[in-house]
Structures are given as structure tokens and as C-alpha cells.
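Hi C.,

You asked whether I'd gotten around to modeling the 208-residue construct. I have! Everything is below, sequence then structure, no commentary in between.
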Amino acid sequence: MGLLERFVGWLFGRRPVKRDVVRLDLPDGEDQVDEVVDTGGGPLKAHHHRRAFRDPRLLPQKKPVQSPFSFRRRKKVMSAGEANRLFSATLRTRNRNLRDLLPDEDQLERLDLPLWRTEDDLAHALDLTVGQLRFFSIHREKETAPHYITFALPKKSGGLRTIMAPKRRLKAIQRRLNELLVQRLPVSPLAHGFLPGRSIRSGAEPHV
């Protein structure tokens, strides 16, 4: 049992944590009011790719009991910079299964994948400064210098196909990310796209 598991077990006493989902968009016919949160207290199950560790700071907290005549300052749980990233427009999501996840460090080690905890870690791995990292990863709604060029190519069936190609510096960063991360990800033996020696034809041959 890792340090994080022991901490989560101590923090929540191994009791299931519930949170209100009444304001979330639920499929028609469902009237669920709360859900049980898996804090990653058990072993990796068969067919699971990773364990769903949850950030305790982003889970429901018990309201402290205090006198109406007392004043208590709210406890700071994360730095302003981290909060701005977690709740920025580009990372905000209504999917609670995504927005409070922590990395499964054991799984990353098993797959020989890098562990990047901060922007500084990612920037260092890409040989960039944090400022450069933010410049190349800024959301398109806020960007002032587009990193893609757009052009059109004629299609055999007629008409034009719009192509958005990354510029030289962004392409170099994407290739570095591919080398450090994407190429190391496990690929299903059923996949035929974007793999050397495989194509639409190799995907169709078993069905002929």
C-alpha cells in the first residue's frame, strides 16, 4: 500500500465518500442525487488500465461546526497558480470522473511513462521555459499568434480539403512529445491506424 493510499484511507476512514450530483446532466429517466466516489483504495482490477485516484482537496469536505459568533478563516488547500490551472476555461469540465483525478504513479512506472507533476516538469522535458510552454499551448480563443498554417488541397472526388499544419517550432515540440509519451503508450493489437506497417487495408483483410 502506497503513501497516497494510506493517506486517503486515513483521511476518509475507508468509508465511501458521497457527493451531490443533482445539478449534473444525467441521462433521461435517471434521478440520482448522489454518487459514491472511488478513492483508489483497492487493487487494480482485471481489464482496468489505471486506478482512479482522487485528489482529496477536490472531494466534498465536511462543514466544520462552529459558533455563529466566531470568525474562522477558510483554509488554503492549494496555491493560486495551481488553482488557476485546475479551474481554467481550458481544463474545466462537468465530468467529475476527470476533474479530480490524480496520476497513477505505479502505472506510469510500469509503462515507462514520464511523471510530470507540474508545468515546470513538462517544460523541462521539452527543453522549454514555462513561458514558452504556455505560449505554444494557449487556448485558441486567447491566442494572438496562431501556430498553424491553413491551406486547401483538391480532393479526388472534387472540392477542397482544408489542412491545418503546425508551424516549425510547434511541430518540433509535438515530435518531442510523441517520442517521450505517445510512442510509449500501449496500443491494442486490434488498432490499425497510425501504426507502422498497418493501414486501412490491414484492418479490412481479416473481414474479407
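If it helps when you're writing up: The first strand starts at residue 17 and ends at 20.

Thanks,
B.
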